[in-house]
Amino acid sequence: MKRKSGMILAGILIAAFTLxxxxxxxxxxxxxxxxxxxFPPAPTxxxxxxxxxxxxxxxxxxxAVAIQTFPGGTLLGAKAMMDGVIAGQADIGNxxxxxxxxxxxxxxxxxxxLGIPNSxxxxxxxxxxYKKYNPKAFAKVKVLTMFTTAPTNIMSKVPVRTLKxxxxxxxxxxxxxxxxxxxxxxxxxxxxxxxTVEALQKGVVKGLFSSLExxxxxxxxxxxxxxxxxxxxxxxxxVVMNIDKWKALPKNVQKVMDDLIVEQAKWTxxxxxxHVKESINWSKKTxxxxxxxxxxxxxxxxxxxxxxxxxxxxxxxxxxxxxxxxIVKDIKKLISxxxx
Length: 340
Ligand code: 3IO
Description:
The strands form two sheets. This protein has a six-stranded mixed β-sheet, with helices on both faces. It is globular. It has helices spanning 2-22, 45-60, 81-87, 119-133, 163-166, 176-183, 193-201, 214-217, 243-247, 251-287, 296-304, 307-319, 324-338; strands at 32-37, 65-70, 92-96, 141-148, 153-156, 170-173, 187-190, 207-210, 226-229, 236-242, 290-293. Helix content is 48%, strand content 16%. The protein folds into two domains: 27-150 and 235-275, D-Maltodextrin-Binding Protein, domain 2; 153-233 and 286-319, Bacterial extracellular solute-binding protein, family 7 (D-Maltodextrin-Binding Protein, domain 2, 3-Layer(aba) Sandwich). Residues 40, 44-46, 96, 98, 149, 174, 192-193, 210-211, 214, 235 line the site of 3-(1H-indol-3-yl)-2-oxopropanoic acid.
C-alpha cells in the first residue's frame, strides 16, 4: 500500500517535471487574465475572429493566459473602443477605423477606391501599411492584428440598377464608404454597424453599404431584398491592447501574440471571404434576394464618379504632413503583390 502510493507520487512528480520542461510557456493555469472587448454581436466576423484568437493564445500558452471575451458592446461600444483600451477599461479591444475616420487617417487610405479584391488581400495590405508607416494613431497601444472586410456592396429595400436609382437614397455607411455613397449621389447616413439594424427596421435608412456577410449574420436579407454588386472598398479594423498590460506580459506570452499578428490577419481574411460566399448563397436561397450586376457601361459611369476621391485624400493627408502620394502608391503595389 505504502509502496504503491510512493510510486504514484513519483509518477506524478516525473509527469509534472516533464510537463514543465516541455511546456513552451510555463505558468499557473489562468494566472494571466485579460479582457477583450468587441462591439458587434457574437455571431459576426469580428467576434468569430476574437474567439479564434482567444483559443489559439490559451492553447499556445498552455492555459497560462485566460481571455474573457465581451461581444455585443457589453464592455466597450463601437466608438469608445480605442480610448477605452488606452484607459484600461478593457485590456484588448477590436475597433473599426471607419468609425473615427479623422483619427486613423493614414490606415484609412486602405478604404480608398484602389481595387482591393478581397478580405485576405486587404488584411495583408493593411498590416503592411501599418508596419511601414507606424502611424501615430496607434502609438499608445500594442497592435495585436489588423484585418479588413471584403469589398462593400449596396444592400437595399429597393432595387438599385442605375445612378438614377441611387440618387437621394438614404443609405448607411461609415468613414471612407460614406464619401463613396455621396459621390454616387446617395444620401449617406453615418453610423456604426450595430445601430444599422434598428435604422433599417424603422426605415431611417433604405439600405446599407458594407461587406455581404452581414446579409446572413445580421439577417439583413430579411429586410433588404436587393444587392447591387459594386465591390468598391473595404472597412479596416484593428485589434489593440493596453500598452501597460502588454509590457507586463512575460516575454514568452508576448512572443505567442507577436507570432499571431500576421497569421490572425490571414485567418480572418480567409474566413471573411468564404463567409461572404456562404452569405450570398443563403440570401438567394432563404430570402430570394436579387443580386444586381451593373453592365460594363453602367459600372464605368459609377467608377468615374469616384476618381476625385483618391486625389482629395492625398491633398488632405498632405496637409497633415503625411507622405500621401507614396502611401497610395504603396497600397497599389501591395495589392498586386498579394493578389496572386
Ligand atoms: C462590420 C462591422 C461589424 C460587424 C460586421 C461587419 N461587417 C462589416 C463591417 C464593417 C463595418 O464596420 C461597417 O460599418 O460597415
